[in-house]
Design brief:
The complex is a heterotrimer. Chain A is of the alpha/beta class. Chain A is built from 14 helices and 15 strands. In chain A, strands 1, 4, 5, 6, 7 and 15 form a six-stranded mixed beta sheet that branches. In chain B, 78% of the residues lie in helices and 0% in strands. The chains are: A alpha/beta, B mainly alpha, C mainly alpha.
Chain lengths: 311, 231, 225
């Protein structure tokens, strides 16, 4: 056919090759947001030195009061405030922040979009196998946001499971998802939202009858929700075990050196009661910060913390 | 380390078959919801499309003009934005719809605007002579439409409808963003809890292909059967 | 109406939307041209390869492809993909699959006589393609291509789901910060998307006019298939 010579033609092949190269170059040249993230298996990544000279990027979710963007567009809230103090203590003053959905925080960390997570993330076994946690700086009970008077009488996750009329809202990737499922809340009565404000909207609109978050967050949210209140904080009991949620900061496995330096400073601040003054204005009380004293990651995940692997 | 974790049931490596099989039922349940939403959505789109097409052909500018503008508007803006509108903005005006209903309406309205174009093309493809004959025979407008125009217009629309059905199925996973528990939502939930993205999303893709490819074949058959232009 | 600050933030998001769309369209167009031309090759292997690409990347929707590229591909290749990379890659390959069919159709629509005449005039395959076939194919391809570009613009809103700060995501952030009411924000969103789509449509029409110079374009030519 008359098209045959087209492909045998050397010029065609050269042109195609040129095209491929052009596309490849363009692709490489276009740097998206965030370069970072050198994954050196097992070796120390030198993040500490780099951060001291160039600054560090932190990732957080828009969740009052743990981490949010204030009017100036800066990272504010419990976790960023504590992180800033700790970082100062190890010689880092330059900070950049990235806002990400809560459920995407760990993925983003591992992909290198930022170098640490400061979102008050609870330390759990699953999470600890994916990234390197520090020891906790606070602990919190869980609570529900319910209509005034708590008409459904919700006290814990089991009570939600037992009441067939109740639809519960949770945040994607939050520990409450696991708590609710373990307590027996069926899938069609559990609604997952990506963002905390969506939970609030859902409650106001009547899509959900209640939502579950840390007691601190719930109390903070109901302040702006007339007609709704927070239930008493409770410690979820799953399979007979109490699950007190304690939050820490998160790093990549290959940044162990950095994490250890950060952790040391964090623990020293914690033991000398210097955390509370930083976070009081966000609604934290000594009840939350004192409970964290003396706790380590191992306490919370119930086994030795020696993971050095990327799964 | 790896073997210890494996013994505890933590999935390992790039692809873990046990994990994949474990999550498959959940994904299949989600797929069913996706298909349901699509089928209901296409019904809405088919009906709405015809209504819109007729409205746009109306000789009264007061009707045809706003409808035309609205249709163009819906076609030029993302379905995601429209779904969010139904989900977040309507409640501010007191209208709270269930997520599934929002999904069906969102898909139906969005694609109804596309099908209205196909209906218009189909209606316009009916030869002038037919219209004139109907008038000459003193047919009432309703009869003219029912007996003459539509029976000739609809067959040309069928392949397009088939195409839009497949296209709608491909956009149905957007419903996961308004908390509908369909296939993509299931994948994302699995990912956010287990931190493993390989199995859920690959399986989701494969399941999707398993439905969309046969559907495309069917549509192509419809195209051949009903033909295209009558010009 | 709403403060300029709110609109300013939305505009920033729109800029990212345009960036993602432009890059994805670039990738998609290149892939479509390659795919379309290779898809007409005499080699059955080449044709099969293109076929597989087209069916797969069309069959999985853009959104599933996007999540797969963002969450699964990095695991497979042990490679860091920023949301921008992932978004462009997913949307571009998706568009390329649809575009391939367009290009094939466009090239086939060019009358045989044209390529035969070109061969008779001793043009090489490449010259024939570049000077005779493609320019005429482009005229038929442009309207559906324009639609495809607008589809990419709309699909770009999906990148908000993988945490890229485009128009859609900015709107969500503004809702969180409570800077403006939700209806106001959405009004801005729809206006901006509508405006961008409008601009694209105008660009495509201008391209149609330019490429159609000296040819029979319009209703008459479109019947000839």
């Amino acid at each position: 056919m008359h098209r045959t010579d087209f492909f045998r033609d050397l010029r065609t092949k050269r042109a195609m090759a040129a095209l491929f190269i052009a596309v490849a170059v363009l692709g490489a040249a276009c740097n998206g947001d965030g370069g970072g993230g050198e994954t050196t298996d097992g070796e120390e990544s030198g993040l500490l030195e780099r951060a001291r000279s160039e600054g560090i990027r932190i990732g957080f979710a828009n969740e009052r009061p743990f981490g949010f963007e204030n009017e100036q567009g800066e990272a504010d809230g419990e976790a960023p405030a504590v992180a800033r103090e700790v970082l100062k203590g190890i010689g880092i003053t330059e900070l950049e922040s990235v806002v990400v959905e809560f459920g995407a925080l760990i993925n983003g960390l591992r992909a290198g979009r930022y170098d640490m997570i400061a979102a008050g993330m609870f330390i759990t076994e699953e999470r600890a196998s994916q990234a390197l946690f520090t020891d906790p700086d606070y602990c919190s009970t869980s609570a529900f946001a319910v209509p005034q008077g708590n008409p459904q009488g919700l006290t814990d996750f089991q009570s939600v499971a037992a009441n067939n009329d109740v639809t519960l809202g949770v945040v994607t990737g939050g520990v409450e998802v696991g708590y609710a499922e373990a307590a027996g809340v069926p899938a069609d009565r559990l609604r997952r939202f990506d963002l905390t404000p969506d939970l609030v909207d859902g409650l106001k609109a009547g899509r959900i009858d209640a939502f579950a978050l840390t007691a601190i967050t719930v109390r903070d949210q109901v302040k702006d929700l007339p007609g709704f209140e927070a239930t008493e904080g409770f410690v979820p009991v799953i399979n007979g075990e109490e699950q007190l949620g304690c939050g820490g900061f998160v790093f990549r496995f290959e940044d162990k050196e950095f994490r250890d330096a950060f952790n040391e400073e964090l623990v020293s601040l914690r033991e000398s009661d210097e955390i509370l003054p930083l976070v009081e204005k966000f609604g934290f009380a000594s009840a939350e910060t004192d409970v964290a004293k003396g706790k380590t990651v191992e306490d919370l995940i119930g086994k030795p913390y020696d993971y050095g692997m990327n799964s | 380390m790896t073997s210890e974790l494996r013994a505890q049931g933590v999935p390992q490596g790039v692809w873990d078959w046990d994990f994949a099989l474990e999550i498959l039922p959940q994904l299949l349940r989600g797929l069913v919801v996706t298909v349901q939403a699509t089928l209901m959505g296409i019904v809405v789109a088919m009906v709405l499309g015809l209504v819109l097409a007729l409205a746009r052909r109306s000789r009264r500018r007061l009707i045809s003009w706003p409808v035309g503008a609205a249709v163009e508007f819906v076609r030029s803006t993302p379905l995601l934005a429209q779904l969010f509108f139904l989900f977040f903005v309507l409640p501010e005006f007191g209208i709270v719809l269930s997520p599934f209903l929002i999904g069906v309406l969102g898909l139906g309205i969005h694609y109804g605007c596309y099908t209205s174009e196909s209906y218009r093309a189909g209606i316009e493809s009916v030869p002038r002579g037919q219209w004139e004959a109907a008038v000459a025979l003193n047919m009432a407008p309703a009869t003219k439409w029912r007996r003459i125009v539509l029976p000739q217009a609809i067959p040309t629309v069928i392949p397009a409808l088939g195409n839009y059905l497949v296209a709608m199925f491909k956009e149905a996973p957007l419903l996961s963003t308004v908390t509908v528990l369909e296939l993509l939502a299931a994948s994302r939930n699995i990912q956010s809890v287990s931190f493993r993205g390989m199995e859920p999303f690959t399986l989701a893709g494969l399941l999707f292909l398993a439905v969309s490819l046969p559907a495309s074949v069917l549509v192509r058959y419809l195209e051949r059967r009903y033909g295209y232009a009558r010009a | 109406m709403f403060g300029s600050q709110v609109f300013g933030r939305l505009l920033e998001g729109a800029a990212t939307t345009v960036q993602v769309t432009a890059l994805a369209v670039l990738l998609g167009t290149v892939l479509a041209l390659i795919g379309g031309v290779v898809g007409l090759s005499p080699s059955p292997w080449a044709r099969a390869l293109v076929r597989i690409y087209v069916e797969t990347f069309r069959g999985v929707s853009a959104i599933i492809l996007l999540f797969w590229v963002f969450y699964a591909l990095p695991i497979m290749l042990n490679l860091f993909l920023s949301p921008l990379h992932a978004g462009v890659l997913a949307l571009g390959t998706n568009m390329g699959a649809y575009g391939t069919e367009l290009v094939r159709g466009g090239i086939k629509a060019v009358p045989r006589g044209q390529s035969e005449a070109a061969t008779a005039l001793n043009m090489t395959g490449w010259q024939r393609l570049r000077h005779i076939v493609l320019p005429q194919a482009v005229v038929t391809m442009l309207p559906p291509y324009g639609n495809l570009v607008i589809e990419v613009l709309k699909s770009s809103s999906l990148v908000s789901l993988i945490a890229l700060n485009d128009l859609m995501r900015r709107a969500q952030s503004l809702r969180i910060n409570g800077a403006a009411s939700t209806p106001e924000i959405f009004l801005g969103v729809f206006i901006l998307y509508g405006a961008m789509a409008g601009v694209l449509t105008l660009l495509v029409r201008a391209a149609e006019r330019r490429f159609g110079r000296g040819m029979d374009i319009g209703r008459l030519a479109r019947i000839v298939k």
